[in-house]
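S., here's the first fold you wanted:
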Amino acid sequence: MIFNNILTNWYSIHKRDLPWRETKNPYFIWLSEIILQQTQIKQGLPYYETFISKFPTVKDLAEAKESDVLKLWQGLGYYSRARNLHYSAKYISSILNGQFPKNYKELLKLKGVGDYTASAIASICYNESTAVVDGNVYRVLSRYFNIETPINSTKGIKEFKILAQQLLPKSNIGDYNQAIMEFGAMQCKPTNPNCKECPLQDGCKAFALNKISHLPSKLKKTKVSKKHFNFLVFLSNDGKTILEKRTKKGIWQNLYQFPLIESKKSLAINGIKRQLENTSLINIENYSVSLYNEKEIIHKLSHQHLHTKFWIVETESLSKNSIDTADIKTYPVPILIGNFIEQFNF
């Protein structure tokens, strides 16, 4: 039994029952793939179900407000995925007259869709002969064939794509692609894989050489930077606060946050007061400041760690840009802000 037959046979027995595996609808498959990028199925499944319920067609998603899409996405992180999803839905609805792209080449034109996502949709929905290569596939192939080329290098990305393409069966491409991804997720796990009961054990070179724990190989990550965030939570006597929209490009673009003071080191209350003296948001003659969290909250992102403090600023009145605290939960915010809002219980 050849490599791909072993995997598809294993998949037919062990695959998880997931809603996007019950359809060939490219919109549903696309939605699931975008949600599950850098997100585990357990976390992503409720979001998928909510999106399908709220936006049952690509036209429904296209007609939604971006703020509503971001609010629904809140908690998943990597918010550029949601912005790209909405942008592409509008592109499909208006430019393509609601017709979803029907091949790999056309799928790549969608914003936020790369080789992996285009390959997944094209093979699952249209049985196009294009291989998927995600983290799970990298792991299976690097171990089975004992490939030490770093998977996050230009050479590695090209090498593994070529190999994956060569291994494709002549038919049932979508099932095979899902099989190798599922196999990597459930059987050939990153740590403590069940090699003793692995159907690929006999041909696995890494197993024979006792190299399972060393593969796949990766180049060292860039150094993670450290930043200090001080959020000013304004509270007025008439039940107002202030949220600001982040308009600059970045992971939190178009999300809302409390006014932010970013610093190179941790600030004490005197430093916050000096900053407040230069703001027009409040009457500096009549306010009080207190620190909400004595211990900094460390919010870890892929490229930076945010050491965060929330400062409560109480005052009689606020500027015209203020909002009612009763409406604060209607705004899309980063999970860091969302967690604070829940804890503070406005």
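And the second, which I think is the more interesting of the pair:
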Amino acid sequence: MERLDAIVEQLRIWQQRINLVAPSTVSEVWTRHVGDSWQLLALAPDARLWVDLGSGGGFPGLVVAAALVDRGGSIHLVESNNKKAAFLRECARIAGLPVKVHAKRIEEFAASFAEAPDIVSARALAPMDKLLDYVEPFLKKGAQALLPKGQDVEQELTQAAISWHIDAELVPSVIEPHAKIVRVLNARRR
């Protein structure tokens, strides 16, 4: 809890200088962002190595990292915006999190990352079709993707199915009644 408190405190400080989350959601940070991120952990209780793409304001990456301290795991946060990457590094330092921040584009990171993560995640990053482009290199290494999505998830999956063969399941969000988490086991271009 102390680690999560530190993350939220830093978010509130940095949010005044750079846009990390939608300003309208800052007052709901514990449910809208922390809780929404925390629920991913139940879907991957044995995961030790995570990759979070487009980490931005640190959700779910920093929240997952707070849990991985006790599990003996680590997470790689990929964020191309240098200011946001600086925020992620500072949060990790202050909270003592097992994080490595990569200030580079996702495609560049994926091409250079040799490890095989257990989980790859991305929240509020892109439509499903584009997300599958980003996560596919990690799926090929045996990772599962956990992708929180809003109420339009079925439409996004239908659109993505035009270009992709997708082996996925929808898990209801415990935070937002209309949201789902897309657990992708495999995806390949048609």
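Why I say that: The first strand starts at residue 49 and ends at 53. The first helix runs from residue 2 to 15.

Talk tomorrow,
H.
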